Amino acid sequence: LLGLLGAGLLVACTAAPATPPPSPPLPSATPAPTPLAPTAVLLSPTAALRPPASAALSPPASAAGEVPIVVGQGAQQLRGQGSTFALPLYNLWFQQYTKLHPTVAFSYQPDGSGAGLAALQQGHVDFAASDIPPAAGAPPGLVQIPAVAGAVVLAYQGTGLPPGLVLDGDTAAAIFSGQIQQWNDPAIMALNPGVALPGTPIRIVHRADASGTTAIFTSYLAHVNSNWQGTIGSGETVAWPVGQAAAGSAGVVARLQQTDGALGYMGLTTAVQARLAYARLKNQAGSVVEATVESIGAAGDDLQGDLGASVVNSPDPESWPIVGFTYLVVDHDLHTLPDGAHAQALVDFLSWTAQDGQRSVEDLFYASPNAAVQTQIKAILRTLTYRGQPLAVP
Questions:
Q1: What is the CA radius of gyration of the chain?
Q2: What's the pTM?
Q3: Separation of CA 40 from chain center
């Protein structure tokens, strides 16, 4: 889930808990069941919906292990594909928006940021969702709009593993590179004094698909550990030296739940919904922090001006260190949509997500872009066109 125009416009068109806002359960106790929106809702599509092109969307039971979403029965179907990192929020947005605007319907294939961007470039979908910062290189003609900031957490489960373990960047890099192989390794014990840890092997689970969640996590490891940066690097996919591959966030969750001593990475909302324990982390300032709306927002506030900048490993002492933005990605000119009415419907939805849609984000443990970024988003939306003609921005 890429290029900048002006002082922050992401338009790359060279070629043509009894606390303030709701926050997740503290990892010091096993996360309690939380009444969140389901990660996928499959409703019966109607004949009025444009069927997704066979080359565009993966078949049901997608390559990323997620259930395709179809929401609403309106004639103006908007087709999307991509991120699983923010899937809980996108799914909620689709449901909320179709209730307000029953003429609109959504189909969305959650099979990873890389697949979503590829489908958009090929003209198979109307929008993509990507967790890959625009600075990673914008495909020509695409615009990336920051939606929300979210946390990637290190989730685990196993006999004798208490919730709320503490890890830091160097230890995480050593684990995922295979240098640390047991839960009672001295490096882990040193970060958790007085905690009895079993000698269970650490069984790594990582994503198999091109994933924005992987891009965020490996970018963090590359920022904090020079050995990781020099040998493995960062990106949607990397050559993992150890571990088992699983398709999509759902695949990682399933593998963790079935494997004693397993450790994997995923979005915070996914971990909470799956009731998995996840580690606290020592951030750049040396503070041991938990993944909460507040700590995500502290990192997200680093995004200023350059909307493609990475916000991992923030220097803010209150920040969660593994944070990334998820972006809604569209063509600068929405010429692939069937008509101007569909193009206007997409712009209306994008504008709603940046305004009224933000009211729901903290309930799902995401953080809204700061005021300066929201101003830039409005400017981005005003640049969108349909076959060269401007579109109204609500």
A1: 20
A2: 0.82
A3: 15
